[in-house]
Amino acid sequence: MRNEVIRYSKEINSRIIIIDNDNKVKVDSREEFIGDTFKHEEVQKALKGNSAANIYNYKEYGRLMYTSVPIILNSKIIGAALISTSIDNIYSRVEDIENALYIISFISTLFIALISFILANIFSKPIKKFTNAIMNMAKGNLNQRVDIDTNDEFSQLASAFNIMSTKLDQVDIQRKDFVANVSHELRTPLSSIKLLSESLLHQDNAGVEIYREFLTDIDSEIDRLNNIIDDLLTLVDLDKERLNLNYKVTYVNYLLEKIITRLKPIADKKNISISYKAEEKLQINLDKDKIQQSIINIVHNAIKYTPNGGNVEVKLHSDGKNVVIEISDDGIGIPNKDLEHIFERFYRVDKARTRNTGGTGLGLSIAYQIVTLHQGKIEVESEVDKGTTFYIKLPIDTNMV
Ligand SMILES: Nc1ncnc2c1ncn2[C@@H]1O[C@H](COP(=O)(O)OP(=O)(O)O)[C@@H](O)[C@H]1O
Ligand SMILES: [Mg+2]
């Protein structure tokens, strides 16, 4: 029995102690307590027929688990077996697992924090940039740029946004310039009228002749105001009617003849000869009233900016793709540096001189806009003191609907 207990205790790596009914140790696998009295709680329970198990933590031995079972022979309890097993290694395993869990949860917390930081950067940073830019635009600062240098949809959105804000900014600058120009242009004749009428009012006993002279000046300033307002209204109409041209198949020859008949008296006043040559009869689809207005503006300019006794020629031909209306004069010409600006609203090469001729500075921009609406082009060649030639090119094909 003793040997068997020792062998078995080795097998299960535990100490086995057998105790008899009188609490006396009979067998101890380590042979240390033989003959001692054991009154452990587990032993008492086992001797009463119940098995028991408890864990103790001893300073010298570490954690031990005591398990006891009654030894029964012929239905009688004859003793108890107490098995003491060291469970320190189990505890250390559990501790290891616990530590590993701590480390894993620490690392995953770090990892989650890192991922959320990266995601926050990817998504919220650009959105913040957009929000700031949009809020600034809402405050009226339209020149906003969003710089995103990642290579994804956000950077595509940013470049689209930047194109939009630049366009809006340009339009806004143009609008402000236009309003400033309009106010200035309207104020000039108004202040002349005010000045003229005030000086009349302050003159005692002014003769009828003086009145007539001043009123003639006032009348011509009012004409100027009317011209500016008419031109402005035309521009407003052109903006509104963008795609609403009243196309009709029209002979350009008749149109030109009509325009020349209309402007001849003005040319005659300056002793300017105005000639017309057409190589062929050409008809295209156009908005007659509008094209007529743009040609009048250009022919009128040719007369205005040509000294007395000069020549204005109007020619019509086709270059295969376009109907070309050529208007040339031997007048004052346009300096090279001004050529690229003459189609801008209110642009005049010589402000003082054009004031005398009653120009508004809007004629060419109206002409340009009308021809552009017809998918056409206006080109200009000029030499100072030699003369100027304007080419109005209206497409033949695209117009024929
Ligand atoms: N045939 C031309 N010869 C010389 N200068 C011209 C001619 N046509 C236009 N210009 C210049 O272009 C400017 C713009 O023309 P336009 O828009 O018709 O305004 P304006 O009302 O002054 O005639 C004119 O002020 C003038 O300086
Ligand atoms: Mg003009």
Walk me through what this model shows:
The chain is α+β, with helices and mostly antiparallel strands. It has 3 domains: 2-86, PAS domain (Beta-Lactamase, 2-Layer Sandwich), CATH 3.30.450.20; 153-239, Helix Hairpins (Orthogonal Bundle); 242-395, Heat Shock Protein 90 (2-Layer Sandwich), CATH 3.30.565. 52% of the residues lie in helices and 22% in strands. The chain has helices spanning 2-11, 41-47, 88-138, 153-202, 208-240, 252-269, 288-304, 336-339, 351-357, 363-373; strands at residues 15-20, 25-28, 52-58, 62-73, 76-86, 247-251, 273-278, 283-287, 311-318, 322-329, 377-383, 387-395. The protein has a 5-stranded antiparallel beta sheet, with helices on both faces. Strand 9 and strand 10 (322-329) form a beta hairpin. Helix 5 runs parallel beside helix 10. The longest helix has 51 residues, at 88-138. Bound molecules: adenosine-5'-diphosphate (ADP) and magnesium ion. Magnesium ion (MG) is lined by residues 297, 300-301, 359, 363. It is found in: Cell membrane. GO terms for molecular function: ATP binding; phosphorelay sensor kinase activity. It catalyses: ATP + protein L-histidine = ADP + protein N-phospho-L-histidine. One of its GO terms (cellular component) is plasma membrane.
Percentage of residues assigned to helices: 40-55%
Please count the beta strands (DSSP E, at least 2 residues each).
12
| Class by SSE composition | alpha+beta
Report the total helices. Answer: 10
* Pattern of helices and strands: HEEHEEEHHHEHEEHEEHHHEE
| Nearest-integer average pLDDT | 90
- Note the beta-strand portion: 15-25%
Oligomer: single chain
Unreliable stretches covering 5 or more consecutive residues: none
CATH structural architecture of the largest domain: 2-Layer Sandwich
What is the strand arrangement across the widest sheet? 2-1-5-4-3
The termini sit apart by: 120 Å
The biggest beta sheet is recorded as: 5 strands, antiparallel
- What is the fold-level CATH name, i.e. the topology of the largest domain? Heat Shock Protein 90
Spatial extent as radius of gyration: 53 Å
Total individual domains: 3
Distinct ligand kinds: adenosine-5'-diphosphate, magnesium ion
- Shape label: rod-shaped
Report the CATH superfamily of the largest domain.
Histidine kinase-like ATPase, C-terminal domain
